[in-house]
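ARCHIVE CARD
Drawer: 12
Card no.: 0347
Subject: one protein chain, sequence and derived structure
Cross-reference: see card 0346
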Amino acid sequence: IGICGELGADLELTELFLAMGVDELSVSPVSVLPLRQKIRQTDVGACREKELQKWLGTGGGTDYQTINAMLEGLIGGVPHQLANLANASALLYQELEDLNWAGFYLMKDGKLVLGPFQGRTACIEIPVGKGVCGTAALLDEVQLVKDVHSFPGHIACDSASNSEIVVPIHWKGQVVGVLDIDSPSLGRFTKEDRIGLEAFVRILEREWRGE
């Protein structure tokens, strides 16, 4: 494992693992989340994160393979749906860059109702067919919007949001909610994000409990 020499760090990542009491052979994408949290608390956290990405064979764009493996490790076999969604939103908010909101709206009585999320306070109810979330639910299609201000009927829950991606969630063949992610930057989300987040949602669907 390389040394972060360009930042003046004098410990290899292997030594950092040892200092934390972690066996590097046991570190995997599933178990790396708490390790990343510890690394980011160090003075050379950004450097350690870079080295960790190299060690895992990641880097260069968003590493959805690792993020989705983390999700499986967090929620697999856990029978508490709201807790699973809370952890899922926290995972996305801390692992994806340049976000101001990440969370869920859940279908209830024909409306999308605010669920677990990370970010600023949000709209509590969204009618199906209205705004980006409502359109995703109505059409049962991913909505990747590079400029929300040009989206017909956009609901501005947070005026700081400029781009958005919404992925429908299914259970027993029905749309039961949506994953909603916002960014303050125009054009933040790409085809890569769409593919990665659709896989993320499929993991949630496998653990869905209809609560």
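Annotation on reverse: The first strand starts at residue 101 and ends at 108. Residues 1-13, 53-60 have pLDDT under 50 and may be disordered.
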